[in-house]
Amino acid sequence: MKDIKFVLFNYVKLNRKTLIIFIISIFIFLTVFYLYSLPLEAIFYAIILVCILLLLIGSYDFIKYYKKYIKLKSIKKNYRLNNISFPKSNDLIQREYEELIMAVAKDRLRIINEKEEAIDDMVDYYTIWAHQIKTPIAAMRLLLQSEKSNLSTDLLEQLFKTEEYVEMVLQYLRTEHMSSDLQIKRYSLDEIVKQAVRKYSKLFIRKKIILNYNDLNCMVLTDEKWLLFVIEQILSNALKYTNKGEISIYMDCKSPNTLVIEDTGIGIEEEDLPRIFEKGFTGFNGRSHKKSTGIGLFLCKGILDKLSHTIKIESKIDKGTKVMIGLDTIELDVSD
Q1: Which alpha helices (DSSP H) does 201-321 contain, by range?
Q2: Which terminus of the chain faces fewer neighbouring Cβ atoms within 10 Å, N or C?
């Protein structure tokens, strides 16, 4: 009903010139008949007949106008750039507008296709590059492991960081098509987390960081590879910003199926907390320590969203950071 009133108002507004001319014409006829002292019954009778005819024609025209409005509204909700079908129109100006819209849509579709091809080419190039760079990194690792010195140890640590950044590039490129790469099953959370801990074990020893680890007796419905990447990123951040103290990994006793990774590092500024998952946001600590890329937590949030998991971070300056990963998922019928 609201739509009909709105369309009727616009229809009357569109045809207001015709209505004004009709009213003026009636007034002229009445004036002429009055001045010549002619009987007004005839003109009143003619006016009634014309009004009835105008009402019939107007109603028919309004129905066509309303149907066209409904169709255009439907097109707006469900349109495709390569398949727009406008209602038929006898209005020359309207047809020109339709042709202009079609031309703009066609050109826009061409630009989108060109951009998508360029992005696909770029993704392919960087994916190949990321895989190829692993070969010289592996070769350098073998060379450095053959030498036992403080310098080789330092270089191995920097090489490890390089590998992390390469892996981040690969995961960043893959997230666009992440859905086709998922293998959702029930996994042991303890085994997934221990993989991440083993990866960073040397860094724990080198920085003399204490690890408080409680066995995680929890089966989680997830994708092992993507969840492992998220845990590695969070553990990497904890080690990066913790110079002394400890890192604790445990299940939250208050929130079921919630993994907690807590450190005693430098913490995060309170005003930075609402923005830490934004792409490219480094915050005060990232800028002052020049360690942050602003991509890690952005990737973690995007991946966990697609896995239907959640992430929440609490932090206090000089006291540490607490990351809580909610591992509840939509129930799916999957095999163990």
Answers
A1: 201-207, 224-240, 283-289, 296-306
A2: N
DSSP classification of residue 222: E
Cα(162)–Cα(168) distance, integer angstroms = 10
- Per-residue pLDDT of 104-129, as tens digits, reads 878 888 898 898 888 888 888 888 88
Would you say 242 and 265 are in contact if contact means Cβ atoms under 8 Å apart?
A: yes
User: Which tokens is 138 given?
Assistant: 């592996």
* Both structure tokens of 262: 């807590």
List helix spans (H) across 175-223.
Answer: 189-199, 201-207
Q: Is 202 helix (H, G, I), strand (E, B) or coil?
A: helix
Q: Residue 112, Cβ neighbours under 10 Å: how many? A: 11
Q: Could you tell me the strand order of the sheet in which 210-213 lies?
A: 210-213, 246-251, 258-263, 320-326, 310-316
Instruction: Tell me the CA distances in angstroms from 2 to 13, 16, 222, 289, one per residue in order.
Output: 17, 21, 47, 59
Contact 209, 242 (CB under 8 A): yes
Taking Cα atoms as reference points, which of 47, 54, 22, 20 lies closest to residue 33? 47
- Distant-in-sequence contacts of 59-67, Cβ < 8 A, 24+ apart: 62/7, 62/8, 62/11, 65/7, 65/11, 66/4, 66/7, 66/11
Encode pLDDT of 189-216 as tens digits: 999 999 999 999 988 988 899 999 988 8
| pLDDT tens track for 251-304 | 988 888 899 999 999 988 888 888 889 887 777 665 555 556 678 888 899 999
Q: Which of these, 315, 276, 312, 311, lies nearest to 296 by C-alpha position?
A: 276
Taking the mean position of all CA atoms in its chain, how far away is CA 60? 46
Length of the chain, please? 336
